[in-house]
């Protein structure tokens, strides 16, 4: 645990087309077990409890899209923005995200065996019980995200920014937290080892909370 003024690498924002074609309902249905969308805007689409081998989005904006309970072999998103979408209990074998923003979304129970997120923003979203053990996060930001009881064991959160997040009972044991900025987040009851916190950035009140978690007596 330490206070650091080292310069963080800035997150790259999605590189979206200036004009997007509106996707029709047929565009969002699996074709040959795959959903492929490029340069599209999708609004109020529903595909709940579905199954597909691949969900690939590139240069897309999604508003109020519901994918809750769906299962995918692979999810690949590049330059995508999601607003008010429902991804609760979505499961994927592999999920790779590059320059993605998820705002006001439901991600509770979201799970992936192999996850790589680069330049990803998650803001004002519910990600309770998310299961992303061993995930790689690079230049990622979590702002106002509920991560209570999330499984982030062995995840690489080096350099990530977690502001005003709730991490109660979140499992970060054996996670890599070098230069991870946890300031202003609720760390009460977070599951983490002393060695795991090496290099993490916290504020003074959080240091007191973490000391109690470690069983230290502060007099």
Helix and strand arrangement:
Elements: E1 21-22, E2 34-38, E3 40-43, E4 51-63, E5 71-83, E6 91-103, E7 111-123, E8 136-138, E9 141-143, E10 161-163, H1 204-213
Parallel strand pairs: 1-3, 2-4, 3-4, 4-5, 5-6, 6-7, 7-8, 7-9, 9-10
Brief descriptors of the model:
elongated, 10-stranded parallel β-sheet, Pectate Lyase C-like, 219 residues, mainly beta, disordered N terminus, single chain, 10 strands
| Strand residues, percent | 25-35%
Gyration radius (Cα, Å) is: 18 Å
Overall pLDDT score: 91
Could you estimate the helical fraction of the residues in percent?
under 10%
The overall number of domains is 1
Derived from helix and strand composition plus strand pairing, the structural class reads mainly beta
Name given to the CATH homologous superfamily: E3 ubiquitin-protein ligase SopA
Series of H and E elements: EEEEEEEEEEH
Q: Largest beta sheet, briefly?
A: 10 strands, parallel
Spatial gap, N to C terminus: 19 Å
For this structure, the CATH topology is: Pectate Lyase C-like
Which regions contain 5 or more consecutive residues with pLDDT less than 50? 1-6
Count of discrete alpha- or pi-helical segments spanning 4 or more residues: 1
The total strand number stands at 10
């Amino acid at each position: 645990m330490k206070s650091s003024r080292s310069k963080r690498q800035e997150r790259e924002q999605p590189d979206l087309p200036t004009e997007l074609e509106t996707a029709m309902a047929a565009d969002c249905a699996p074709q040959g077990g795959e959903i492929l969308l490029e340069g599209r805007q999708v609004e109020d689409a529903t595909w709940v409890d579905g199954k597909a081998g691949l969900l690939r989005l590139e240069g897309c904006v999604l508003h109020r899209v519901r994918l809750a309970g769906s299962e995918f072999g692979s999810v690949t998103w590049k330059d995508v923005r999601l607003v008010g979408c429902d991804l609760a209990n979505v499961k994927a074998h592999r999920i790779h995200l590059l320059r993605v923003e998820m705002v006001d979304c439901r991600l509770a129970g979201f799970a992936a065996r192999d996850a790589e997120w680069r330049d990803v923003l998650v803001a004002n979203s519910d990600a309770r019980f998310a299961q992303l053990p061993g995930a790689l996060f690079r230049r990622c930001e979590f702002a106002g995200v509920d991560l209570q009881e999330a499984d982030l064991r062995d995840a690489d959160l080096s350099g990530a920014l977690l502001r005003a997040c709730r991490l109660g009972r979140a499992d970060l044991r054996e996670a890599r937290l070098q230069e991870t900025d946890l300031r202003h987040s609720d760390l009460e009851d977070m599951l983490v080892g002393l060695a795991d916190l090496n290099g993490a950035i916290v504020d003074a009140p959080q240091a007191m909370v973490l000391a109690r978690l470690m069983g230290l007596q502060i007099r």
